[in-house]
Write a structure and sequence with these properties.
The complex is a heterodimer of chains A (350) and B (227). Chain A is mainly α. Helices cover 75% and strands 0% of the residues of chain A. In chain A, helix 1 runs antiparallel to helix 5 and helix 10 packs antiparallel against helix 13. The radius of gyration of chain A is 19 Å and the shape is globular. Chain B has 227 residues and is of the alpha/beta class. Chain B has a single domain, classed as 3-Layer(aba) Sandwich (Rossmann fold), CATH 3.40.50.300. In chain B, 39% of the residues lie in helices and 19% in strands. An 8-stranded mixed β-sheet of chain B has the order 3-4-2-5-1-6-7-8, with helices on both faces. Chain B is globular, with a radius of gyration of 16 Å. The chains are: A mainly alpha (350), B alpha/beta (227). At the A-B interface, helix 14 of A face helix 4 and helix 5 of B.
């Protein structure tokens, strides 16, 4: 139960800060407006250093036994750099780096301390709450004063200080090479989604079609439950097929297309953020989770560059073919399961 | 008391131990129930006729009494289904389903206790599976049944090693022993090998003075001491 609450706090605080600030959140938009910097430059700083933080963590974090203490230090620096962004937008580079450490730490916590059959729903409920926080932020925070906006954005990070410290015992272990089967479809999804979403979003906006934040939030809970109770692969395949359907319906049926692409993100976000923990072996969780995260963050950034630097429309047939092939690759991959030995370890721990 | 019978390899004689131990305990006036948890390779159905199986009992909230087959005074069995469909279902069972079954198994055992059963013997599949882990978790004492061959003993070491996270009393029952062997395990019984062992489920009933029956008598005494 304590590990469930800890993992909820980790994901909720990470998600709430990410959504309200660096991941195209309202605070970022305010900084861009204040410093009159291009969004391309601002988010490039964030993403490049975020990737750097993930790489740094995947190399070194498995050697750190007191990872929660390290996270508390990283969060303190994160809060400081978030406020420094009121003076210089370049502080977002440090924010990106520290967020890289944060995400790999919570991933390694998930892999080490959260029961395999609970990870999907814990992540989903935490993500749901983060989206509620974003919704409240966007609808009820009326300040125009940047430091006040940053204060509200960093507030969930303070929850990290309530997490008890624990030891991540050092164990020698190798990577689970089966991650390759899961990384390719995740990469294809985020790249195609990133490239196409810019173009599609503009069309949705012009047509006056918006999907409510809470729509995504509800679907992600549904996806988390399917992930735990039915299977990991089914969530990924549903996400890949939903984005394919969304592309097929674009631009003839914009309403359905908009909701399908939101649903696809909910499904693949759950899959992409949890599967690396499921594939991890004790001792190399940070390495495994960090490598997995690169297959999410790198294509998101590539998609952002491609769609923001020049209008790039992928050939629809190629995009759909790649997505459907990715769904097949996932379908052929072996479902990561708990071995009876692992099952014994998890159940005996309760 | 809940007794879990496990083995590393198949053919070690768990079902033979389960039925004969159950018989002897019932003879001692202890109300006993044998539950067959080896749903991958059921065998008790060939000894005891039953139309209701443990597979259903562990999946549905149904009264345990409907699933009990009384085979003699103080001895009942709950058998596993021989249906291919049920065997297949057990082979593909997920961790989530197994976790639900663990909860249901605890309910079933509590119900048996409330019905006055003194002993429940859980006859498991060989090796380590979700179901055998569940059985270890609910047992008061775990008994590893093994032959005395070198590969069997190596298997025993593995069983002790992998089950170390389950802090229960663990004992060894050596079966089909041909010579006076001794190992560094907590051995509670040495059941000799005999060509007289037949298909009858209760060897100890037919051959009361046989060395095997004497070994079971000693085992029952030891178990009653443990309790």
């Amino acid at each position: 139960m304590r590990s469930d609450l800890t993992s909820f706090l980790l994901v909720f605080s990470y998600g709430s800060f990410l959504l309200t600030f660096p991941n195209f959140g309202p605070v970022s938009l305010k900084i861009i407006e204040t410093f009159k910097v291009s969004s391309y430059t601002f988010f490039s700083y964030f993403y490049i250093f975020h990737i750097g933080g993930i790489i740094f963590s995947l190399i070194f974090l498995d050697r750190v036994e007191n990872r929660i203490r390290l996270l508390k230090i990283a969060v303190s620096l994160l809060i400081a750099f978030a406020f420094l962004a009121t003076l210089s937008y370049l502080a977002v580079a440090a924010v990106g780096f520290l967020m890289g450490i944060f995400v790999v730490t919570f991933g390694s916590y998930f892999a080490r301390f959260v029961e395999p059959w609970k990870r999907g729903r814990i992540f989903a409920v935490s993500a749901f709450m983060s989206n509620i926080y974003l919704y409240l932020f966007m609808n009820y925070v009326e300040y125009d004063f940047l430091p006040a906006l940053i204060l509200v954005s960093v507030a969930p990070l303070m929850l990290i200080y309530t997490i008890p410290e624990m030891t991540f015992e050092k164990v020698q272990s190798n990577l689970n090479r089966k991650f390759v089967y899961f990384s390719l479809p995740v990469f294809v999804f985020y790249l195609i989604g990133g490239v196409m979403y810019g173009i599609m979003e503009e069309a949705f906006r012009k047509a006056g079609i918006t999907t409510h934040i809470l729509f995504y939030a509800v679907i992600i809970v549904f996806a988390g439950l399917i992930y735990d109770l039915i299977g990991r692969k089914s969530v990924a395949i549903a996400g890949l097929l939903a984005i394919s359907a969304s592309l097929l319906l674009f631009p003839s049926h914009l309403f359905y297309s908009a909701h399908l692409i939101q649903s696809s993100y909910a499904f693949v976000d759950v899959f992409g953020m949890v599967i690396w923990a499921d594939l991890s072996r004790i001792g190399s969780e940070a390495k495994q989770y960090g490598i997995g995260m690169l297959f999410i963050v790198v294509p998101i950034y590539m998609g952002f560059i491609l769609s923001s630097m020049f209008p790039f429309e992928m050939h629809m047939i190629i995009a759909i073919t790649l997505l459907v092939l990715s769904a097949f690759v996932i379908g052929l991959a072996e479902e990561p399961t708990t071995t009876p030995t692992d099952y014994m370890m998890w159940v005996a721990r309760r | 008391m809940i007794i879990g019978l496990h083995s590393f390899k198949g053919g070690s004689g768990k079902t033979f131990v389960a039925t004969n131990l159950g018989y002897r305990l019932s003879e001692e006036g202890k109300k006993t129930c044998i539950i067959e948890l080896d749903m991958k390779a059921p065998s008790l159905y060939s000894f005891f006729e039953s139309s209701k199986f443990v597979n259903d009992l562990l999946m549905k909230r149904v009264p345990v009494k409907d699933y009990l087959t009384e085979v003699r005074k103080n001895l009942s069995v709950i058998v596993a289904s021989p249906s291919v469909q049920e065997i297949r279902r057990d082979l593909v069972r997920s961790d989530v389903e197994s976790l639900k079954i663990l909860g249901r198994l605890q309910e079933v055992l509590a119900e048996l206790k409330s019905m006055g059963f003194d002993f429940v013997i859980l006859d498991n599949s060989p090796g380590l599976s979700y179901m055998s882990v569940n059985s270890m978790l609910v047992s008061d004492s775990i008994f590893f049944v093994s032959r005395a061959g070198r590969d069997d003993i190596d298997g025993l070491k593995i069983l002790f090693d992998v089950s170390k996270s389950i802090e229960k009393q663990k004992y060894v029952i050596l079966n089909r022993v041909t010579s006076d062997v001794d190992f560094d395990f907590p051995i509670v019984a040495k059941i000799p090998c005999s060509c007289e062992v037949s298909d009858d489920p209760f060897f100890v009933e037919i051959h009361k003075e046989h060395e095997i029956s004497k070994a079971f008598n000693a085992l029952v005494e030891r178990i009653l001491e443990i309790v």
